[in-house]
Amino acid sequence: MTGSPFKFLGALVFIVLAYTATAQAANPQDFVQNMGDKAFASLSEEGLSQDQRTERFRGLLNEAFDLPRIARFTLGRYWRTATDEEKTEFITLFEKFVIQAYSSRFQDMSGQKLNVINAREVSASQVLVLSEIEIPGKAPVKINWRVRSKDDAHKIVDVLVQGISMSVTQRDEFAAVIRKTGGKVDGLIKALRRKTGSN
Amino acid sequence: MKVVRVLPGHIARIIVSASCIGLLAAGCATAPPASDQAAVAAFSEANDPYEPFNRAMLDFNLALDKAILKPVAYVYKEGVPDPLQTNVTNFLANLRGPVIFANDLLQGEFDRAGNTLLRFAMNSTIGILGINDFAGEAGITGHTEDFGQTLATWDVDDGPYLVLPIFGPSNSRDGVGIVADHLIDPLSWLTPFEFQIGRTVGTAVDRRARNYDQLNDLEKNSLDFYAAIRSLYRQRRVDQIRNGAPASSTPIPGRISVVPQKTDSQQSKATTTKK
């Protein structure tokens, strides 16, 4: 009887260790492969409601991606002109925006699989992992992942679909919105609030 | 060899710049005042001096799309069996063989030209007029080329962004490319006019049906649909011009000039301590 809380604690420690092990895979390629396998398994589960899928997507997104860094990149040159409050709100809204835009895209992924092909170094801390997504009955889609590694922990900082960078696309779009609203980050924040339904 | 490469590029550049003059009258975006540095940088980066004209043209194309192309593509996508749709895609792709072959040659890509020729020969015969991608199944995968890309390999700049009526996103270089491709395509002189109309309509419907979900998605999830399309078009073209090779020149999140200097020095410190 007295042993059971310790058993529970043991199991918890084991789970935490196993979890950390996947997050700190030996190299960026394994990291992307593991994340891909996990994402496909978790998001394509049958009978999942859209809300549940969105929650799972949020978890995976924060685990695998360096969202604050990506958010800062997409603001481009306007990051410097933003106030601290604007920066904080922008990062929060950016996460909401990404989840809203991307979580619905993972509805029908049955039979799909991510295969890492190889990787090439792009800088001292960054590697480009080349992969393909297998889609039954269709040509495979080429997806490249820019992974930033620090102390054996890996985070994705960009996704390139058939050569198109999601971060660059987002940055260009945000720049256009800012330019239209008089060159103020505030204009973009308002547009993001409307889009994500945040007051 | 050098002369051959430079000369057509030079002529092409003159044609490209000449073709833009007509558009000057169509409405230009006002450049921001020189004092506003961020705005000036953003303006030149967008490389879109005809933005008001282009936005109007996108609206025009979208209205046309909603009224005609989108409903037709939907019926086609939902009503026609998938294998038949693949046959149509293959057939239309095979028709582009001669143009791709010519552009492979003009780019000096002789291996790729050989590949295109082999595919065209195999698919037009064993593949039954191209409805089956027989070569692709045998492991000889295809690629696409066009004269816009050829001009790019001759160092012709893309020029300002343009949204063409019906043709959609383009730029002055690729606009010239569309015309040139039509002129060098033997099928455009050898086939009857009715066939060409059918081919053009078929190509439009096939392409629209294949991009149906992605376009819906993009329209729903973008803050500025026009700017998103512009960015996607540019990046797609750069990727096509590089023949899909990953670029090292793409800006890397976290390694750009706007990142506070602190981050850079922290990174270099981290590397030195590791050593």
Strand content of chain A: 15-25%
Number of domains of chain A: 1
Form type of chain B: globular
Outline the low-pLDDT stretches of chain B.
1-9, 17-26, 254-275
SSE-based structural type of chain A? alpha+beta
Going by CATH, the homologous superfamily of chain A would be Tgt2/MlaC
Q: What is the string of helix and strand elements of chain B?
A: HHHHHHHHEEHHHHHH
Helix content of chain B: 55-70%
Largest interface: A-B, 54 and 44 residues
Name given to the CATH architecture of chain A: Roll
Please count the beta strands of chain A (DSSP E, at least 2 residues each).
Answer: 5
CATH fold-level name of chain A: Nuclear Transport Factor 2, Chain: A
- How would a crystallographer describe the biggest sheet of chain A? 5 strands, antiparallel
Number of strands of chain B: 2
Judged by helices, strands and strand pairing, the structural class of chain B is mainly alpha
Described by its quaternary structure, the protein is heterodimer
Descriptive report:
- The complex is a heterodimer of chains A (199) and B (275).
- Chain A has 199 residues and is an alpha+beta fold.
- Helices cover 54% and strands 20% of the residues of chain A.
- Chain A has seven helices and five strands; from the N terminus they run H-H-H-H-H-E-E-E-E-E-H-H.
- Chain A has a five-stranded antiparallel sheet with strand order 1-2-3-4-5.
- Chains A and B meet through helix 4, strand 2, strand 3, strand 4 and strand 5 of A and helix 2, helix 13 and helix 14 of B.
Secondary-structure blueprint of this entry?
The complex is a heterodimer of chains A (199) and B (275).
Chain A: H1 3-23, H2 28-43, H3 50-64, H4 67-75, H5 84-102, E1 113-121, E2 126-134, E3 141-150, E4 153-161, E5 164-165, H6 166-180, H7 185-196
Antiparallel strand pairs in A: 1-2, 2-3, 3-4, 4-5
Helix pairs in contact in A: 2-3, 4-5, 4-6, 5-7, 6-7
Chain B: H1 2-24, H2 37-46, H3 51-79, H4 82-95, H5 97-106, H6 110-125, H7 134-137, H8 147-153, E1 161-164, E2 168-171, H9 172-184, H10 186-190, H11 193-210, H12 212-221, H13 225-241, H14 261-274
Antiparallel strand pairs in B: 1-2
